Amino acid sequence: MIKRHLSRKIKEAAKKYPVISLVGPRQSGKTTLAKMTFPRQPYVSLEKPSELAFALEDPEGFLARYPRGAVIDEAQKAPELFSYIQAIVDEKQTAGRYVLTGSQNFNFLQRVTESLAGRTSIQKLLPFSLGELLSSPWNPTSLAATMFTGGYPRIYDKGIRPTDWLGNYVLTYLERDVRSIIKVGDLSVFQRFLKMCAFRSGKLLNLSALANDCGITHNTARAWLSVLEASFIVFTLTPHFKNFNKRLVKTPKLFFYDTGLLCYLLGIEDEKGLMMRPEAGAIFETFIISELLKNRANRGEQANLYFWQDKLGREVDCLIDKGKELVPVEIKTGRTISQEYFKNLNYWCDLAKCERKKSFVVYAGEQSQKRSQGTVLGWRDIVSL
After folding, report:
1. Which CATH number fits domain 6-124: 1.10.579.10, 3.90.1150.10, 1.10.238.10, 3.40.50.300?
2. Dihedrals phi, psi of 4, to nearest 5 degrees
3. For the segment 23-40, what is each residue's pLDDT rounded down to a tens digit?
4. Which residues, in sequence order, are bridge partners of residue 332?
5. Which long-range contacts (CB under 8 A, 24 or more apart) does 52-55 make?
6. Has residue 3 got a pLDDT over 80?
7. Does the pLDDT value for residue 177 go beyond 80?
8. How large is the average pLDDT for residues 287-309?
9. Cβ contacts of residue 49 below 8 Å, gap of 6+?
10. CB atoms within 10 A of CB 219
11. What are the residue boundaries of the DUF4143 domain, all occurrences included (predicted)?
């Protein structure tokens, strides 16, 4: 069993808040983490029809079975519970009383903010991070294998071929989550939309072009993308708007949380030759950006990642906003360090009047080194950023 890095933050939060809200995609390990972190708390899943019916019909009676609290899985299925939980914790502020998990961010967080604002700590559990895998029995053997497999726990726990498990995951996701949020007349059209999103991972998001390619309206594309974001399938990276007296791109970039799922949707059947494919650069950039995001989520931090691009195409792949300074990060698919890797970083550092040595290049090789123009990180060392 892999120790999840988020467990430390959850334990800290459980000493301060009466409710812990654990969100994340389906099959990211939320149930396992909640059970392991709070082994003395009773566990109940609203995926079980009888429990769900009880919670919906008699929420007060349902909660009365757990006078000292409980771990309630897929809590968003019974929204009536949230108001009753609010009343219970307001009466007696016992820290760590309830742990609520949810895999539909939109429905779950809407209820949390309506009823439990100020009473809950919201934590996000994403699929395994590279750092978690590096300290596990499944220590990654290669970059290609790591990106192809992705981070969903069951693939590792059960030794399932990634394409087999991910194929079933997509079908289950389409049947269960999409239909529960929006009405999709033809699921094949939505599946095409999902694949078209995959071909745009790591690229500027053009909703109109995406809609045209799928034969749907702009508004439908926007709604469907919101569903993918709410279900932790994709996310967008916002451009940094500090002007520097230049014309800047203000369109966000689209990324997938999991490169295993991304590879599956791109039709990649194994890791052999993955790094030679035309999509390799986008997959690697997705991998690095998602790892930076996972690292922050596992520490309970807000995402502080941006990118920068001007109208002439000069770009910095990632800017880490540390409050007092911006740390530029360039992502390169090559395995051999080149002076060319620092070109855009040097330009941006001169423009922003920051020290070049504080910039980073992350590349597909193994060796990390410090240079006068910045630090070079091999892909395994991304855990340090």
Report:
1. 3.40.50.300
2. -85, 130
3. 999 999 999 999 999 999
4. 363
5. 52/77, 52/78, 55/80, 55/81
6. yes
7. no
8. 94
9. none
10. 10
11. 175-333
